[in-house]
Amino acid sequence: MHALVGENGAGKSTLMKILYGMQKPDEGTITVAGEQVAFHSPADAIARGIGMVHQHFMLADNLTVLENVVLGSEKLYGIGATARKKIKEISDRYGLNVRPDVLIEDLGVADRQRVEILKVLFRGATTLILDEPTAVLVPQEVDALFDNLRELKSEGLSVIFISHKLGEVLSVADEITVIRRGTTVGTAVPAETTPRQLAELMVGSELPTPETAESTVTDKPVVEVKGLTVYASGGASLGELAEPAGTGLLTEEVSEADGVRRVLDDITFTIHAGEVMGVAGVEGNGQSELIEALIGLKNADSGTIAFLGEEITSWATRKRREKGIGYIPEDRHRQGLLLEAPLWENRILGHVTERPNAKGFWIDPKGAQEDTRRIVKDYDVRTPGIDVTAASLSGGNQQKLIVGREMSHAPKFLIAAHPTRGVDVGAQAAIWDHIRAARREGLAVLLISADLDELIGLSDTLRVIYNGRLVADADPATITPEELGSAMTGAASGHLEHVDEAAAPEDEAR
Amino acid sequence: MKKFDKERALLAVAGPVLALVAAIVLTSIVLIASGKNPFEPYRLMLEQVGFSDIQVLIINQASLYYIAALAVALGFRMNLFNIGVDGQYRLAAMMTAVVGAHVALPSFLQVPMLLLVGLLTGAFWAGIAGVLKVTRGVSEVVSTIMLNAIATSVIGYLTLTDNFGVLVGDNITTGVMKESGWVPGINLGADVGEIYGLVFLAVLLGIGYWLVLNRTRFGFDLRATGASETAAAASGVDAKKMVFTAMLISGGVAGLSGLPLLLGDSHTYALTFPAGLGFTAIGIALLGRNNPGGIALAALLWAFLDKASPALDYATPVAYEKEIATIMQGLIVFAVVISYEAVRQWGLRRQQKRVGAELAAAAAGNNNHKKEVAA
């Protein structure tokens, strides 16, 4: 198992794309099993037994798991019973827990990742490339994934593993390669390396910690949510198949007698000015729906949302954004950016009615461009200019642009979903600083993150969401990621007390 | 940065040029295969451009194409495929002709009123497809095609002599419009002809199209929806309202596309009114990359092929079939679709590479003197 670590934009993804035949090298050679090869397409790579699980999943939402898996490799096992049997077999062998007949759109991110891994194994891969596989998982799931990977390894498969999380890399990899700005800057053996040394290799600086200083929580409520409930779309009323659209792992339970699943069930909370409320939870337990209900993409089936004392339950998305709700979406490619538009047009996205982007009815390109230059500078977005398309930036730089854009409109309430996902350590610290600074000014933040250290370090209050309900709360000052993790799987509820002698949430898991 | 602008311009030109070259080469192959001179027809057609009466014909025809193609392009910009431009245009032209034949206001009221009738009729017809899509999720591709067929029947019914039809010879028309609704053209002499007055309407619409799309909030929302529906929704665009509005505007513009001919020359809607304009416009919008300037060039090219090709039949000493132009038009559409996608992907990849290269260079510079990469 070989790990590849490096800052964002260091060239990890590019290297992997070349290995997988998606991009051609300008110079140099690739050797597979002692034989020099030249890949012209992913098909060539697959033929050599190289399979890739991308950071952004390549799945067709409206097809079932089975259909997605056989897509493009129909010749292997056909598209019917043989293929289904094969999928079941692989799924059971590695404990992937994949159900072949569920629609992809009904699955959470973690389940989708398992489908991606299964897809690669289905094609007979002997070398797996995993691009940031743990970014979306909770500690328990990460452990499960690593168990799977170790099992793969013991059967003679090779795994190439890309990650920012140095702790994980050290615990699982047999060998580590660090790259920076497109070249290899070092290799390391995990047994002889500390996270600090690795981090210094990566960025030449120390690891930041997300801990906030003194509390800035005031008693002025900014967002009050009462009894918010949202039903699953595609419930029984639409004549869907009897099987509820659950996320393979945990959400088997149907909470209502009439068979309508509640993706959000009686959610009640208040966030005050200057408060960061963290929501922990396994992906697919209602976080996406909560975010969408708050920003206005989903209608509440019952319950109310109030913002600065005003009832906003029926407001449209645009009005909410104009009134000061900022939004850092969980999937920046789907919701945060126009990939083929230049950066300055992406600066306008979401704030098209506001200055400096618009003057009344008209767009103000000059104003937007100027402000984009400011964001690029202040948020250290690495780009040669503001006219390049968003697609040509690396993931971390795209995220910095989004954070800069949302913070530029002085939001009073910020919905931050995975604000530092896929962002390198340096930029992570910068984003945290920006959130902290705004919090001092009285910003209320709803923070949703799969990175438990980030949650614990940034939040003033912590809630755990499980199966659409807020089942537990915790004090971020004392709780550990492991304790939080057990509540996330539904094993604990109520107020979580820290039991052991405090082993403070150190850099350990990073 | 200037160089990325230049690059974008280069990419914008590369697609159409590639497509045209490919289409010409393929047409020449067809000519060779049928034992003809592969170059002579082009020379003959280009010769035609020198005649001023042909120039007038080309400009007039192009104005119709241009407006219709703008209607199609508007839909394309937000991933709506309005195949119904043809039906919207014919129905609107007929309604305008009927109103123009029965209402007589002073000219300064009559002409705007007629334009409004065309606009509203087109918008109404497209709006049906819009309502169906928004409320019932019916694909606009299917509904607009069907509305084309329905428009044909509606026109057939309304032009019965029992209704608004007037028999002129053996041609069914809607009667001659009142003269206050005629839009005078630019008369270039008896043997040259007249440029339609409403050619200027086409120009204005082109400018308006650019302004609305690139300089207004509405246009930004529309383009955002076309580029990424999910991102647009998250940014606060009401997708349904957007679909409906875009459909109305597209239909309204389509409704105007027959009016230069109707108000400028024919003054009546007859069975001889050109059909298929809306379908041709799809190809033109594609070739013009939904860009107002590009569409203008594409419309002129199409009009040129239309109006210069009849001369091939009368060429001496060797005559050619004028259908060569039709073959070429078909091949252009084909080549356009392929070359644009190829150029788009190539461009994206190239830019990613160059951004990477520039950043690496900047980083190398940074090692010596600490400086912001941005700027």
Automatic annotation (TrEMBL), chain B:
It is a multi-pass membrane protein. Its main location: membrane. InterPro entries: ABC_transp_permease. The keyword Transmembrane applies. It is found in: Cell membrane. This is ABC transporter permease. The lineage of its organism: Bacteria, Bacillati, Actinomycetota, Actinomycetes, Kitasatosporales. The chain crosses the membrane at residues 9-34, 54-76, 88-105, 111-132, 141-160, 195-213, 243-263, 269-287, 294-312, 324-343. The keyword DNA repair does not apply. PANTHER family: ABC TRANSPORTER, PERMEASE PROTEIN, GUANOSINE ABC TRANSPORTER PERMEASE PROTEIN NUPP. It comes from the Bacteria. Keywords: Cell membrane, Membrane, Transmembrane, Transmembrane helix.
